[in-house]
Amino acid sequence: MHHMTLTELAKGLKAGDFSSRELTTSLLDRIERLDGEINSFVTVTRDQALAAADTADQARAKGESRPLAGLPLAIKDIFCTQGIRTSCGSKMLDNFQAPYNATVVEKLRAAGMISLGKTNMDEFAMGSSNENSFYGPVKNPWDRTAVPGGSSGGSAAAVAAGFAPAALGTDTGGSIRQPAAFCGITGLKPTYGRVSRYGMVAFASSLDQGGPMARSAEDCAHLLGAIAGHDLRDSTSVARVVPDYLAELDAPLDGLKIGLPKEYFGDGLDAEVESAIREAIRVYESLGAKVCEVSLPHTHLAVPAYYVIAPAEASSNLSRYDGVRFGHRCDNPVDLEDLYKRSRAEGFGDEVKRRILIGTHTLSEGFFDAYYRKAQQVRRLIRQDFMDAFEEVDVLMGPAAPTPAFDLGAKKDPVSMYLQDIYTIAINLAGIPGISVPAGFAGKRPIGLQILGQHFAEGQLLNVAHQFQQATDWHRRHPTDQETT
Amino acid sequence: MAIEHADVLRAAHLARLGLNSDAEAAGYVDDLTRILEMVDRLQAVDTDGIAPLSHPLDTTQRLRPDEVTETNQRDAFQACAPETADGLYLVPRVVE
């Protein structure tokens, strides 16, 4: 049962093939046995998980039947969980127990889902390899010499390794889609505002969005339906009806217009990745879709604009870590300034400091117009590219990342790491949804197909991804335990 | 636009981020130089007349009625603070 989908596990629970306690115990034991090597979890909440499983089993015995009740999942350690440490991958929050739950955590609990624990991540979600965690890097379950991607690397690795059938991630510049691609799972970044950010530790508030990571598009549809929706506690969440994502899954793709952005197939794209993506496009053609080339002419400006906007927002958001109200505090501060400076110097890791410095610099007097204002203007051009493309086509397709998972330790230079996100970052700037689905392998390492849609087109993306998964079995592949260990 | 050692020290001070040594500061000067070189591609784009986009859906902040909706949870919120006394946060003496 370690590699079954949520949908299959729900059937098993309903049929009485196993109880939620048996399922949960089996996964917890597997995590204990194998995660020492993968390092996908920062905190495993065995007691709480088993208690929740018992509650779910009792409710089922009384005849209650909620579709997700009794199903386990893992939660990225960026979502606040009351009474359980929320570290955000940082020494700064190593001692932090949130006094409240994130809205999505509450929603999943209300749906009867069981949290197995909190997953490892790049510190404050800043990274593309999960090597920036205070708790050490995560290894890719397909190949332990490779990174799992980031920043939701722990969530992706946990799903791939058979530790959890699904996980929550967050995506500010690709942090759901790129690790999903590297670990051979399905990951959806919803439209900005579709899912509440309340209780999600803030990195870049105009870009951050939580979403599901799972073993199929169908499972992502289940989870998105459970977590999406307006939240009075998040003023950027959108008051818009949540559709029945499951109802849309089976729509035929006959006549679907797919655009291939030519900029996503240019220099720097690995040949094996390109070949897998082109093969996936042929599958869509066989399902009745029409394919044409489109252009997103400002693509080359997405990474530069992002590395102004995201660090600027981060430098502001992370100013709350002052050593006074919560989080790490240095020993024996001599005065208030020393308290601030040393607490932050000790609590933050290198990449976080780098981004605070960039953001502070670009927002400071004399630089604001040249950097921040300029980047926001370019952001509008980037969004317009997508809107123009969606006048011609229904969805866009391309690779989720230019290469398969790279080796641990391979990218020492920050800029080369940032350029990894070249195909994912523009999507966050534009606020549109995107999904990565497994589409092949380069050797042992998975390749992800990225599908992009218009604002609030999650139902269509899930449908398009699901139909691919009806025609292929890439999403059913999983690493053997020998590979995982 | 090049970034100088003094710019990094200024940003670190504005961000109240302690740097342990000149070598650490120099490392950030190198990193930020490379990052800002990459960012400088933006300068070549003509953005005259383009309104800055601060929110991907171009919406504005929603207002709510000015009503008290939160209860007092001081004890819960201070439970995670490094140092408190009598319901107050403690910091080093600010006024002599």
Automatic annotation (TrEMBL), chain A:
<feature type="active site" description="Acyl-ester intermediate">
    <location>
        <position position="175"/>
    </location>
</feature>
<feature type="domain" description="Amidase">
    <location>
        <begin position="22"/>
        <end position="462"/>
    </location>
</feature>
<keyword id="KW-0648">Protein biosynthesis</keyword>
<dbReference type="InterPro" id="IPR004412">
    <property type="entry name" value="GatA"/>
</dbReference>
<keyword id="KW-0067">ATP-binding</keyword>
<dbReference type="InterPro" id="IPR020556">
    <property type="entry name" value="Amidase_CS"/>
</dbReference>
<protein>
    <recommendedName>
        <fullName>Glutamyl-tRNA(Gln) amidotransferase subunit A</fullName>
        <ecNumber>6.3.5.7</ecNumber>
    </recommendedName>
</protein>
<keyword id="KW-0436">Ligase</keyword>
<keyword id="KW-0547">Nucleotide-binding</keyword>
<dbReference type="Pfam" id="PF01425">
    <property type="entry name" value="Amidase"/>
</dbReference>
<feature type="active site" description="Charge relay system">
    <location>
        <position position="151"/>
    </location>
</feature>
<feature type="active site" description="Charge relay system">
    <location>
        <position position="76"/>
    </location>
</feature>
<comment type="similarity">
    <text>Belongs to the amidase family. GatA subfamily.</text>
</comment>
<dbReference type="InterPro" id="IPR000120">
    <property type="entry name" value="Amidase"/>
</dbReference>
<dbReference type="InterPro" id="IPR023631">
    <property type="entry name" value="Amidase_dom"/>
</dbReference>
<dbReference type="InterPro" id="IPR036928">
    <property type="entry name" value="AS_sf"/>
</dbReference>
<comment type="subunit">
    <text>Heterotrimer of A, B and C subunits.</text>
</comment>
<comment type="function">
    <text>Allows the formation of correctly charged Gln-tRNA(Gln) through the transamidation of misacylated Glu-tRNA(Gln) in organisms which lack glutaminyl-tRNA synthetase. The reaction takes place in the presence of glutamine and ATP through an activated gamma-phospho-Glu-tRNA(Gln).</text>
</comment>
UniProtKB/TrEMBL annotation, chain B:
<dbReference type="InterPro" id="IPR036113">
    <property type="entry name" value="Asp/Glu-ADT_sf_sub_c"/>
</dbReference>
<keyword id="KW-0547">Nucleotide-binding</keyword>
<keyword id="KW-0648">Protein biosynthesis</keyword>
<dbReference type="GO" id="GO:0005524">
    <property type="term" value="F:ATP binding"/>
</dbReference>
<protein>
    <recommendedName>
        <fullName>Aspartyl/glutamyl-tRNA(Asn/Gln) amidotransferase subunit C</fullName>
        <ecNumber>6.3.5.-</ecNumber>
    </recommendedName>
</protein>
<keyword id="KW-0436">Ligase</keyword>
<dbReference type="InterPro" id="IPR003837">
    <property type="entry name" value="GatC"/>
</dbReference>
<comment type="function">
    <text>Allows the formation of correctly charged Asn-tRNA(Asn) or Gln-tRNA(Gln) through the transamidation of misacylated Asp-tRNA(Asn) or Glu-tRNA(Gln) in organisms which lack either or both of asparaginyl-tRNA or glutaminyl-tRNA synthetases. The reaction takes place in the presence of glutamine and ATP through an activated phospho-Asp-tRNA(Asn) or phospho-Glu-tRNA(Gln).</text>
</comment>
<dbReference type="GO" id="GO:0016740">
    <property type="term" value="F:transferase activity"/>
</dbReference>
<dbReference type="GO" id="GO:0006412">
    <property type="term" value="P:translation"/>
</dbReference>
<dbReference type="GO" id="GO:0006450">
    <property type="term" value="P:regulation of translational fidelity"/>
</dbReference>
<dbReference type="GO" id="GO:0070681">
    <property type="term" value="P:glutaminyl-tRNAGln biosynthesis via transamidation"/>
</dbReference>
<comment type="subunit">
    <text>Heterotrimer of A, B and C subunits.</text>
</comment>
<comment type="similarity">
    <text>Belongs to the GatC family.</text>
</comment>
<dbReference type="GO" id="GO:0050567">
    <property type="term" value="F:glutaminyl-tRNA synthase (glutamine-hydrolyzing) activity"/>
</dbReference>
<keyword id="KW-0067">ATP-binding</keyword>
<keyword id="KW-0808">Transferase</keyword>
<dbReference type="Pfam" id="PF02686">
    <property type="entry name" value="GatC"/>
</dbReference>
